[in-house]
Amino acid sequence: MASPRTVVIIGSGFGGIGMAIRLKQAGIHDLVVLEKAGGLGGTWRDNTYPGAACDVPSHLYSFSFEPRTDWSRRFPPQREILEYLWHCARKYEVLPHVRFGCEVTGARFDEDAALWRISTSDGDLSARVLVSACGQLNRPALPPIEGRETFAGAGFHSARWDHGVDLAGKRVAVVGTGASAVQIVPEIAGVAGRLTLFQRSAPYVVDKPDRPYRDWERTVLERVPGAYHLSRARTYALYESRALAFVKYPKLMEGMRARFRRNLHRQIPDPGLRAALEPDYPMGCKRILISNDYYPALTRTNVELVTEAIDRVVPAGIVTRDGATHEADVIVYATGFRSTGFLAPMRIHGRGGRELGREWRDGAEAHLGITVHGFPNLFLLYGPYTNLGHNSIIYMLESQFRYVLGCVEALRRHRLDWIEVRADVQDAFGRQMQERLRATVWEAGCESWYMTADGKVVNNWPGFTFAYRRATRRPDPRDFTARRAS
What's the predicted TM-score (pTM) here? Predict the structure, then answer.
């Protein structure tokens, strides 16, 4: 086996690329980024469906250390985000550190050697520090519908879009009404001969304040000192203020709910369809969606909304529980991701042979969403309790980069074999998170991808992002136990 690396990073999305850049800037060049796919980008590489775009403004959905002033729109499309990540990887010379087509199957901590032994599809390697940058939305969730494999036409998940399938004039069934479906439906409604949308739960959809940037605006952003940073700060402050409604005063959602109702009434004149599109749960309990063309698409004569539950898939299409058969040539499953498993399906073994999946059988736990007791020198990016409902995850990731760097530098400066978060510190953090989450809109009485099957919210941060940045400003030595190198 080759000599141990200082750091191995799993994943090459925003988390993996950003962490690699920050490590290199700190003088740590002995690092490897392992990527199972043939290109970098994470979710922005995988989700190439028609209409794929971000729901956070472009000036905020980018690294603070690498501003981009020439975004085409206020809300960036998938292609431009992926181009931006490739640009960052090239500029900061991360690409030579990336091993594409190298899937991690497992990792085991070797206590005697103080190393992570990592198993991959391309051979084994070892590292002093292991960083997981897998994210929360990387494993598509296909619904457990009877007969899916019997369908005679083309069927695929939205995150595995089959661009070889021509939808022109076809009967297309879309299963799901989440963030992906809201972008897909308007794009393909004008192409498909008939589109049938299967809705289990109506989403809240509000207008999207999107438009192309004008040439003069891009010129100002590029040439006027401070213009870009002012735009970013203004956007951050606007979005951060929304945390009050999500995590502290859910009644403030009434203002946004009024905006939703105005949008719905303005764009859906048919009262029957409008009633079917009215959610039956508190606003914000599930992800709030933004679109200017989703509701208009549902009023097209070739589009049908089906709210009857799906019973099974048959070769000809989809059968609902009322016995009706909805014929289809193509089925698109816009059914989200398995978001609460985090590092799954990798098998990660820590000290004493403990296995992370078993440790997390009642829901994932990690101090500050980053470190896990029993798993020394393992750091998670975008781990438990770090997702947001109101702001940019890139801001959260940059907070985590700084914290992980602090830990890595402590290992080096104090000549430590490993550091490991204390069990009582992790437990106290988890109890605090669950206590604070009970007051949030996410526990207002609905099922969502933020929850485990048992109804425990483990994904979201119940506070302001600036509070998270303050909490992760530097690792507190009192939170850890350590073994000093002999």
Answer: 0.94
